[in-house]
Amino acid sequence: MKRAITLILTVLVVVSLVTFGVNAAAKPTVEIKRGTPIVDGAIDDIWQYADKMALDRYALKGDSKATGYAKMLWDNGIIYGLVVINDDTKSAQTTAMHTEDCLEVFFDLDNKKTTAYSEKNQFRFLYDIVSPLGIRNTDNISESWADHLKIAGSEPDATTYVYEFSINEKLGVDLKFEAGKLIGIDFGYDDNTKNDSTRTAILTWNADGVEPSGNPSVMGTVKLVDVPAFVEKAVEKAPAKTEAAAADQLAPATYDISGLVFAMVPVSMACVALIKKKRHSI
User: Fold this and answer.
1) What's the CA gap between 61 and 57, in Å, rounded?
2) Alpha-carbon distance 56 to 76, whole Å?
3) Side-chain-facing half-sphere of 198: CA atoms under 13 Å
4) 274 and 202 both lie in a single domain
5) Residue 53: which of 35, 67, 74 has the closest Cα?
6) Angle (nearest 5°) at CA 166 between 161 and 167
7) Residues 215-268 pLDDT 10s
8) Beta bridge partners of 73
């Protein structure tokens, strides 16, 4: 009887994990440092000082060789993102953008980790460099997105696919990017290797076996910290010399010979006495 109950409970736990999309091994919170890159699709030097977030999990796992990583920075009420994807197969033949080769970025800006998009300031936008931007929950946009959201990237046929964006806190209702804030986020790279109407794989940062689209509970978490991504090292300088020390260094050298003079007196007297003695002996 006990074995039967244990078996039933085990089955229920497994079913609940699959049904509700709970990540069994969530990644730890990543700290996002302060930095201000230029959003132009090129990788500025400042990005080398941001922590790398590997896209090494799969919401959908298939025959895909694509790899990638993401990095994030923030400063002055703006959050920045960089995603680099390596993929030698590209497809843009389908009518639905998410079934083509493209990148999706999912935000749970209140980090509520709900199982559906029901909170304010939860956005999902996608961009494949050619297609226009799409934002979810547009009723929470407080200003024109074109004024407060920038996006740039590589050409669509590139093998190394660079995607860069910035979001100003003025974009969303009650949106605030400040030190200590926790944000739910995930990246999903849709890989279509067969050039058909279905995705082969979806590479993610945190969600594993479950699509983060519409399910913030499987997203990862980042924390904005008041730490600069790059701190220029101070150049060590020699201690400054005082005016007196500098004057001493430039003045001609002088020597005190008074002691030498006194020391030579008895030697001179001895020499004189010796000379006189020799004269008397002649």
Assistant:
1) 8
2) 31
3) 7
4) no
5) 67
6) 140
7) 999 999 999 999 999 987 655 565 665 555 555 554 554 445 455 444 454 545
8) 80
Residue 203 amino acid letter: L
**Residue 154: in which H helix or E strand, if any?**
none
Q: What element of type H or E holds 4?
A: helix 2-20
Burial of residue 23 (CB within 10 Å: 0-12, 13-18, 19+) is middle
Specify whether the CB–CB gap between 70 and 162 falls below 8 A.
no
CATH number for the domain spanning 153: value is 2.60.40.1190
Tokens of 80: 């920045």
Q: Is residue 178 part of a domain?
A: yes
Q: Calculate the alpha carbon distances from 7 to 2, 11, 20, 83 in Å.
A: 9, 6, 20, 43
The mean per-residue pLDDT over the stretch 193-198 comes to 78
Please provide the size of the chain in residues. 282
User: Which residues form the domain of 251?
Assistant: 243-281
Same domain, 267 and 203: no
The answer to whether the CB of 63 falls within 8 A of the CB of 193 is: yes
Distance, CA of 170 to CA of 176 (rounded, Å): 8
Contacts of 224 (CB under 8 A, 6+ apart): 32, 74, 79, 177, 178, 179, 180, 181, 183
Per-residue pLDDT reduced to its tens digit, 58-72: 999 988 889 999 999
